[in-house]
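request received
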Amino acid sequence: MSGKNEALFKSKMDSASLAKLTGLENDKLYDFLADAIALCEPAKVAVFDDSPADHDAIRQLAKDNREEASLVMDGHTIHFDSCNDLARDPGSTKYLLPPGMTLGKGLLAMGREEGLKEIRSYLAGCMKGRTMIVCFFCLGPTGSVFAIPCTQITDSGYVAHSETLLYRGGYEQFRKIGNSGEFFRFLHSAGRLGPDLTSIDTDKRRIYIDIAQDMVLSVNTQYAGNTVGLKKLALRLAIRKADRDGWLAEHMFTLGVNGPGGRKTYFCGAFPSACGKTSTAMLPGESIVGDDLAYFRVIDGKFRAANVEKGIFGIIQDVNPKNDPVIYKVLTTPGEVVFSNVLVKDGKPHWLGMGCELPAEGVNASGRWTKGKKDAAGREIPASDGNARYTISLHRLANVDAALNDPAGVVVGGIIYGGRDSDTWAPVQQSFSWRHGIVTMGASLESETTAATIGQQGVRKFNLMSNMDFVAIPLGKYIQNNLDFAAGLPKAPPIFGVNYFLRGADGNYLNGMLDKAVWVKWAELRVHGQVEAIKGPTGFLPKYADLKKLFGQVLGKDYTQAQYDEQFKIRVKENLAKLDRITKVYQDIADAPKAIFEELSTQRDRLLALQKAKGDYVLPEQL
Ligand code: SPV
Ligand code: MN
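response:
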């Protein structure tokens, strides 16, 4: 450590913190910290390692800072964000580009120098009178080929506490990398705080990704998606690192599906929000490895995935004993849970869709709340926010998979891409090949955004592999990396497309909430070649008899031919319209791989041929 850094650190920290820092022998880290101290001017600096005592101290700090308050149940705390700060802010999240570099269409970026100047002006002096927290976490299982050590500097005990729940400790990992290894750096400040301890200057909220330095700076915000460095901020850096090193960083869950004879097959799945991602990852009777982020690597010729995280930052709305019994139990029993932006009454958390009547008053992100309270724009404020969340560690769940921390990750048997439309995609189908799946499923994901009024079509939003907000390299390159990833493998995992949201002529959903359990079991059998399928124009479709059997086995439900026909009939016209929309998207992307246009065009040929022969709506039996 340089004498200058040492003197600065000594002036700000106690001997225990200094010893932890000295133990790391990492000059790049010391320079990062010294710069952060000089810029943010904290009253003191506290360094935390992976020990339970230090994690207790972080938990306590979140309470001492009054960013979290204890609820009546042991281990439960509540955190509120500002009313203007309840979700990720893609509009204020930008890549900082060195001179001469471009990322292409669809990625928000600005010049590095200009961006650093702006955000550093907001960070200047922001921690006066506060404690700067310095902690270390690891993306992926520690000691594994997936592991990326990270350091988080923040003035928020809530951010650090969330990270202790969501990520594996990284202090020991830092010791291992010494002076030479790569690591990601995150500097965050909540900025000026109001009397309720929430960020005031949310109009100056900035999340800037300094890609040249593997560093993210974030200020004037508290919402975890903007502040917890290892979550979506690190995903952007990881996508760049994966591009450099030849692997993939994906916005995917990892699920273990139990097959016949005690076999377990792992699936990774990408779904835009509100398309059924968590409920698929938490399917009853299966096991969860992760609900949000996966790294893919080929190891010894096998396609393997690891959960980047070890916890869940999940949407709480509609978690109830009927639909999510496992999560509900964790949220209603003693043990560590951070609730955010729910309604609190008498020290208890309440949220929309929890399965019981909510109190008519209490405290929520808007402050004291009574039913009917309106916001500044005159809109009624709901009891709890639609993006209110819970933060827990995965080990609390009864269905956590034993391989969660396996340094080799799990072998991926299949990939699932889940969209949301009322009238186009079949409930489940399998692609013809890796390339066909990547292009017509992953790179064609759309989700209807409106709470579709009966009969009316929702507004469809394109979301490339559900990773659109996080792709940090040109979009075409990202797709090409996906296409190439499985190319050298003896057997690429089959790719499945699912859609849980088809509606009938009466506007009602054609499927029950739990039918996805059947689709996943069918996919499991397909991975092992144990059921046949019907070749349609957009993929392999299940046979009625196989689904009928699975509905009986998995859900104890009957499944009629009429239901099957309505759900799986090929909607030729709507599929052609979708192809038009997607083709248009890619015509606008300068580096879109040729494979995209080839796959989309052959899919169109197949659909047109079918339309000519059999019309706009065709039953699988007619193929
Ligand atoms: C998502 O929005 O995809 C999340 C939550 O998983 S956030 O941390 O906000 O990204
Ligand atoms: Mn996510």
